[in-house]
Amino acid sequence: MLHTLPELAYAMDALQPHISRETLEYHYGKHHQAYVTNLNALIKDTEFADESLENIIKKSTGAIFNNAAQVWNHNFYWQSLTPGGGGVATGALGDAISAQWGSFEKFKQEFTQSCISNFGSGWTWLLKRFDGTLAIANTSNAATPLIGVDKPLLTCDVWEHAYYIDYRNQRPAYMAAYWSLVNWDFVAANFAEA
């Protein structure tokens, strides 16, 4: 099974001014594509050659896991964003966020702080835990909640390649822009399925 770079649901310049076309050309077109290319090379003629991306992640280690997980994490990240996104979560998701953190603004502050303080390269996630509660979690490098029991609802990529072109080393500025792009419909759909 040949893994491919999925098409974005929006044009390369659709996230401007928050995330530039140049960032997408490098982040999606170069970094994400490299993980796909590397994964295909690594699994050729192995037990993983005909496995789904999710099964590879759950069964592999080392370089195969790192590339497969980065493909999946990036796929999820691009879906977490949408042109004209942002605002607040509503409906059952909004109610769950308010119940967990007291208010949407408090959740937003805590998620932002987790992103900013996530040391080095990694990801910050909003998760629906196995007991139905919500949680914010940081993962490092290619680590992904897909291998655990918690259901990922939303992610933010805090590797420098996600924001360096637009914001240099100013992760807080990237986070301020991120909230203008969050695809709450995608997050709500994940919440409903969990």
Give structural notes:
The protein is mainly alpha-helical and 194 residues long. It has two domains: 21-80, Helix Hairpins, CATH 1.10.287; 91-192, minor pseudopilin epsh fold, CATH 3.55.40. The chain is built from eight helices and three strands; from the N terminus they run H-H-H-H-H-E-E-E-H-H-H. Strands 2-1-3 form a three-stranded antiparallel sheet. Helix 1 packs antiparallel against helix 3 (62-80). The mean pLDDT is 97.
Task: Briefly characterize the structure.
This protein has eight helices and three strands; from the N terminus they run αααααβββααα. It is mainly alpha-helical. It folds into two domains: 21-80, Orthogonal Bundle (Helix Hairpins); 91-192, Iron/manganese superoxide dismutase, C-terminal domain (minor pseudopilin epsh fold), CATH 3.55.40.
Largest sheet: 3 strands, antiparallel
- Low-confidence stretches are none
Question: Span between N and C termini?
Answer: 28 Å
CATH architecture of the largest domain: 3-Layer(bab) Sandwich
Domain count: 2
By DSSP, the count of extended strands is 3
Mean pLDDT: 97
Q: What global shape is seen?
A: globular
Q: Count of DSSP helices?
A: 8
Task: Please give the share of residues in helix.
Answer: 40-55%
Radius of gyration: 16 Å
CATH class of the largest domain: Alpha Beta
Strand order of the largest sheet: 2-1-3
CATH topology of the largest domain: minor pseudopilin epsh fold
Helix and strand pattern: HHHHHEEEHHH
- Give the CATH superfamily of the largest domain: Iron/manganese superoxide dismutase, C-terminal domain
Structural class: mainly alpha
Q: Work out the strand percent.
A: 5-15%
